[in-house]
Amino acid sequence: MRFKQSFNGRRVLVTGHTGFKGTWLCAWLKLLGADVFGIALNPNTEPNMFSLIDLEDDVDHNIIDIRNLKHLSKRIDLIQPEIVFHLAAQPLVRRSYQEPLNTFETNVMGTANILEALRVVADIKAFICITTDKVYHNSEQQHAYSEGDALGGKDPYSASKVAAEMIVNGYRGLFDGRTCPVALATARGGNVIGGGDWSEDRLVPDLVRALSVGDTLNIRNLNATRPWQHVLCLCHGYLALAEKLLNNPNDTNYSWNFGPSAADTVTVSAMLSQFGTKWDLPKISLHPATDMPESNFLMLDSSLAISELGWDPAWTLNRAVSMTAQWYKVQANNGDMRDLSQRQILQYNSDMMCDD
Fold first, then answer.
1. Mean pLDDT of 208-213
2. The domain at 4-355 falls in which architecture?
3. How far apart are CA 159 and CA 151, in angstroms?
4. Which of 268, 277, 300, 347 has the greatest number of beta carbons closer than 10 A?
């Protein structure tokens, strides 16, 4: 497998390992032979992918609130990770309006706590903070945002992620002067789809729930355009970035975009049409958001990751939709989700190697 040489036998910490993206990333890391440790809260949905693939059996599983520096520091000191993927967060825009303080405490101070705890780790080599495409100041223009564009934050969630990026920048100098350099970076991804997500207020989980109970699918804006991509495309980006940081810790590119091609940056309506080729869609009802502003257009320029990391999504949107639909259909029929998830990772790896 690609990346096996870089991760086999490495002590890797994934915060947020019980979440949707964290579970997929841990499953891939285990296939690469990494010694994986997780720090997170318990899964916050039922069902959830973490339980369905029995990930607790494969990782050093720790339930710790990243806002608690004392408990966090004690555990990280025992783990002594070489690589850290920081995904633990309050990730939902609508919830950030309902719980702004919790969002800032988790996403900002939680990030600071992780970095503070890592300062005493002798073997730490790379830290990647997962943020979001929503960190950019969105001018609502037909423009793909690149890493040098201005950051914004018009809601508690996006503002907290901008602040997390600043925290990483602020801590970078505190790791200088070590015998072995420590590389810190942030990774900004687009809208993610894939099996195992049951989060609230997300298109695919809402669609799956509506289909499972024969309910109406409520949509806020059919014309909103987003950079859709499969979760494995993003995990691919995270692994490629970590490999780059391990091999070249003095790289001066501190932030990286991981988004799909322009052809796969489509409207909600187009996404539903794609899913309609795999499922009979439920009845759709429009319910525009009145309690929060939403961007109409969002696109990422990933040319830096393509040129510097050799990263290129192995799956198009059509392929991503097919693999997502397959996962949920098998799960609905009580299939072996651990086996299927591993097979999908291996298939992505095969397609990635063929692209190379």
1. 94
2. 3-Layer(aba) Sandwich (3.40)
3. 9
4. 300
